[in-house]
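Narrative of activities, Objective 1.

The group set out to show that a structural description can be obtained from nothing but a protein's sequence at a throughput compatible with the screening campaign. Below is one input-output pair from the validation batch, recorded exactly as produced.
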Amino acid sequence: MSLLLCHMLDTAAVAEFMFDHFLAPATRDMLDRVSGGRGRRFFAWVCGMHDCGKATPAFQRKSGAEGAALAGVGLGWRAAMVTAEVSRQWSHDKAGAFLLRQALRVCGRWERRHVDWVCPMVSGHHGTLRGATMKDIAHAQGDAHGKSAEWRRVQELVVEVFTAALGFESLADVQPVAVPARAEQLGLLGMVVMADWIASDSTRFAGVPDLAQGSLAEARHRAAAAWEEGRLGGGLRRLRPTGGCDVIELRFGHGARASQALAVDVVRAMDEPGLVFLEAPMGEGKTKTALAAAEVVAERFGLSGVFVGMPTQATADPMFTHVRAWAAAAEPGSEDDVVLLHGKRAFNPEWKAIQAGDWSTADARFLTVQEDAPESCCASRQGPADWFLGPKRGLLAHLTVGTVDQLLYAATRTRHVMLRTAGLAGKVVILDEVHACDVYMSQFLKEALHWLGQARVPVLLLSATLPPGQRAELARAYMSGATGTTDHTELPAPGGYPNVTAVWPGMQAPVVVHAPTWRDDLPVRVKVLPDPTLRRGRAASDRNLEQPVIDLLTRELVEGGVALVIRNTVKRAQRTYRELAAAFPDERVILHGQLTTSARADRTERLLDQLGPSATPRPERLILVATQVAEQSFDIDADLLVTDIAPIDLLLQRIGRVHRHAATQRPGHLRRPTVYVTALGPRPGLPPSFERGAEYIYGQHLLLRTAAAVAEAERSDGWAIPSQVPQLVSAVYGDDDLVPAGWADAAAQAREEWAIKQEDRRQAAVPFLLSRPGEHALPHLDGLHYAAADASTEDHLAATVRDGDMSIEVILVVQDPDGYRTLDGRRLGSGGSPPSDVLESLAGDMMRLPQRLTSTAIDHLAPLPGWSEHAWLRRTRALVLDAELTARVGDYVLTYDPETGLAYTTAP
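Output recorded for this entry:
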C-alpha cells in the first residue's frame, strides 16, 4: 500500500501547486467558500483521495509481487472470485467512491448532501460518471472489494493516514460547509483528473515502496521539481486595473471607437459575471472590443485566461495572431502561453515558429488534439508548456484559441468532458460569428451556456447581427444556469446598431444600449440576376448557365475592378470558374473547401495580400469565385458582388466583403456598391424558383422571405448598410407578413415544413447533450454519463455537434510506375514512407473529403504501408491518384485539379 499512499500524496502536492500557481483567483475563492476558508487543503485532499479504491483485491491482484506480500500479512483473496474480468468490472474508481462513502458514513459527521457531491470526485476521475448498478453493489459486498475485517481496516487506514498527512484532525474535520454548483463540481473533477495525470508521470514521480520514507514533504519536493520543469503555471495572473483608461488605446495603439468604448463601459458596470452580446457591422473592430472587454472582466472577477472560439480552423489561425499580440501587451510574456487548438495547427506558420521550427514532430509527439490517443513526451522548448499539448488537455491552458467546436464538445456527454469544463473555468469565453450556429449546433451552444452560467464563467458573443429569437434563447440558457431558475427575462430590442446587450444574475434589468458606427452607411444597390434554367424551365449547357454572369462581369469590369462571386456549392463554383476562362483567362481565382491544405492556405494568403486592408498594389482586374469560405472572417475588399441567394443574415455577411475599406480606389462606375443576387428565378405573380443546391442547403422558408426582401430592395433604392442590418434580419426571421400575396400559400407551407424540420433537428441533438431533459437542477454529478456518446475521435465529435456524417481527411498521393510521390512531384520511399524533408509537402496535400464520400472512404481508403511508423500519418488515409490525378473509390470517380480542386462523379 506504500506505492498507493505515495501516489495519493504526490497528487495532493501537485494540487497544492495548482492552487497556488494555476487556478484562477475566482476558482480559489469558490474552493474557500465551499470549504469554509480551507480551500487549498480541501482541494489537495479531494485530488489525492481519487485513488483510494486501489486498496482493494480487485486492483491489487494486478501487482504480482505486492499482491503476494499482502497475502502474507492476511490480506489475500480468492483467486477464483477475483478474476481479471471482475477486476475490470469493479474498477478502482467505482471501488474508491464506495470505499469513501463507507468511510464518511462511519465517521458520522458528514451530511448526506456533501457525501453525495464529493464521492463522484473519486468515481469520475477516469472520465465517466455512471450511477451504481446491481452488479456494482454485489462487487462492493464481495471478494473484489475485500470482505475481511483486515481489508476493511486497511481501507479505513488509507483514508485516515492520508487525511491526517494533509493536516486534518479527522475525516469529520474535512466536511465542506457548502455544496458547489453542479458545473463547479464538474470543473473541480476535471482539476482532479489534471492533478492525477501530472502526478502519474513516472519520470518525475517515482514510486516510494517504503512507507516509512514517504511523506507529504517529500511529495512536495517532487511536485516542485515537476512543476518547474513542466512550466505549468502562466496565464493572466498580474493584470493591472484599467479603470478610467481607454483599454483599446492601451492595448492596440489607437483610440476606441464609440461602439468599443460602449462595450467596455458595459462590462465595467456589471456586478457579476454574465453574458454579453456584441453586435456590430463587419469592420467595426469586434475582435479588439472583445479582447479589451475580456481583460476588464478578467481583472474585475479574478479570472486568469481566455478561450476564443471561431467558426472554422481557417478563421482561428489569424485570431491566434491577434490574441498573442493582445496577451503580450496585457501581460508581457503571456503570449508564449497561447495554445492554438485545432487539428491543423502544425501547418500554421506562427505555431510552427513557436515550436522552434520543428513542425514535423511538435504535434506528432502530442497527436494534435485527437481524443483518446496514446501519449508520448518531448524535450522542453519555447511556447506553451508541453503538458498542455497532450490529448484532451489543450483547453486547460490559460490562453486558448480554437474552433467553436471546442466549446460545444464541453456540452456533450463524452468521456473526460470534465477536462473541458475545467479548461473553461476561470476564463473569459469569447465566441465569434455566433450567427453561424444553426438550430442543431445551437442546442449544444445553449447547453454549454447553461453550464458556463452555473460556473460563473463570463461569455462574450460576437456577431454582425443575431435574430431576436436566437438572442433571447441564448440569454435564457445562460441565465437559467446562472440563477438556477427558468429564466423568463424579456430582452428589449436594440434601439440602434452597433449595439451591446448584457445580462447577469442580480441585475435590475437587461442592459441594451447602442452607439453610432464609425463609418457612414453604404448605399448598396441590390439587383436580381436570374438563372437561365430557373427562368426558362429547361436544361441548358454549362456555358448558357453561366452566360449571364459572364456578360455582367464583362460589362462591369471593362475599366477594371475586383468582383467577388459566391456560389452555394463547390460544384457550382467550379463551373462558374471554368466558364469564365475564355473572357478572363488570367484574372480569376477560385477558393473553396475542396482544395488541399497548402493550396487553400496559399490562395488565402495571396488574396489577403492583394485585397486586404494593406493591399498595395491592388490588382487592376480580378474575379474571385468562392463558396461560403468567403462569408466570414475574411478581410478582403471587392468592388462588386455576385452571390447566390442565402438567408438574409448570411447574405449580409457576404455583402460585408464589398467596399469594406474606405481608402480603396475604385473604377468610377463601381464607386457605389452593387450586389447581384443569383440562384433564383422570379415568376410574375408567383413565388420565385430557387436553384436546387440553395434550396437543399437553406430550405424554402428563409429563402422565400429573403427573396421578398431582395425584391423590395430592387424596387426601391437598395439597402443602407450597416444601419438597416438589424431591421432586415428581424424582418426575415420574424413572424410578420413579408412576402407578396401571390407567394403567401407557398410561404405558409414552407414555414410549416421548416418548423417541423427545426424541431426534428432540435430533438436529434438531445441524445448527445451533457444533461438529460429535466436534470439541470440535480445537486450532484452521479449518473451524468447515463449512456455513452460515441465520439472517440475529433472527427466523431465534430460530426456530433455539427449534425452531419463524420467527414474524413485524406492525403493525396500520386502513384506511378516508380512508386509514390506528392502532388508537387517529390518522391516517397518504399511503401510511401516519407523522407523527413518531404513531410511538410506531404502534409500540405491533405484535404477533407465531402461528407457524401465518408462511408466510401472508410471502406476503401487506408494509410499507405510505409506510414505505419509515423505518429500522425499512420492514422490518415491516403487517396492514391494515378498519373492523371484520378482515382476510383467504390462507386465514385474522384479527380483532383490543382487549379479547381476536387471533383467527383458516380462511376459508370
